[in-house]
Known about the structure:
Layout: H1 7-10, E1 15-19, H2 25-34, H3 36-39, H4 49-58, E2 65-71, E3 77-87, E4 93-100, H5 109-124, E5 129-134, H6 139-147, E6 151-162, E7 165-175
Parallel strand pairs: 4-5
Antiparallel strand pairs: 1-2, 2-3, 3-4, 5-7, 6-7
Amino acid sequence: MPSGDAPEHKDRRRVSLRPINKDDQEEFLRLAQVSTDLHHPWDSPPTTADAFQALITRYDQPGEECLLVCLNDSSAIAGVIYINSIIRGRFQSASIAYAAFAPTAGLGYMSEGLGLALKYAFQELRLHRLEAQIQPANTRSLKLIQRQGFRKEGYSPNLLFMDGAWRDHERWAITADMTDFRATPPHPTLPIR
């Protein structure tokens, strides 16, 4: 489970990460429903019980992680972070995506949560690289990813199917060596040469 900073720093953090589970359905769906305007047209988190169950099933598979950003003082969900398509071997890479929920958007919780997710991905999962694909007009998401140290790597026309059409996206990435996190031994699937 993602643990974030060392225990002596825990009381200074406002958020923690934890894996999503079936018991989160009611709160998650309520938050997704009240956040539709915030997410449109960039994302569409599940807003029905069937869609939530499909999310749980997907992220119960190897190579997929769905983490909730939760407020430390109340355990309320502030957002969700997805670490998708983890590829091992010579690549040691994954995609990362995220969504804030409207009741707590704009308060810095997702920035803190994304920082914890990067630490988890690079130290616990021992990934080398994370990529984020963001629509060019999604300025809030672009600012968030830039604050975390991602670098822009390119532009891909018609990359992802979103809101009923193929959408252009900017590609942003960060590698473990671009962070200040302590070095960890490579994942055992990384070849020696």
